[in-house]
Design goal:
The chain is an all-alpha fold. The protein has 5 helices and no strands. It has one domain. It is elongated, with a radius of gyration of 21 Å. The protein starts with 9 loop residues before the first helix and ends with a helix.
Length: about 110
């Protein structure tokens, strides 16, 4: 019983875990930033802007799905999908990022 170890408290441990997670997120975002071409980054920033006389950004417009089920809504959804693919985000090589992490980012950002 001479070799006692003082373990951190719950609050200290939670703070350490949060700091490590933040460091990992920073590394991940830096890695993704490096592989995305400048033109694509510029286009992504443009998508965040809300056009004049509109209520939502272009990104939000692309993100929202159809409000009702119809042939016209399906056509508009396919047009949106083509527009998203046309951005070229899939061309960025994110091979260094684990697939599970990319899936998580796709859902939450």
């Amino acid at each position: 019983m001479n070799n006692r170890v003082l373990l951190p408290g719950v609050t200290s441990l939670a703070r350490m875990v949060a700091a490590l997670r933040q460091e990992e997120n920073d590394r991940l975002h830096a890695a993704l930033y490096e592989v995305v071409p400048y033109e694509l980054r510029t286009e992504m920033v443009r998508l965040l802007e809300v056009p004049e006389k509109k209520r939502v950004s272009e990104l939000e417009r692309l993100r929202l799905g159809p409000m009702r089920v119809s042939g016209k809504a399906m056509e508009l959804a396919l047009d949106r999908a083509r527009e998203v693919r046309g951005l070229g985000a899939g061309a960025a090589d994110a091979g260094r990022v684990p697939a599970a992490r990319m899936t998580s980012l796709a859902g939450t950002g």
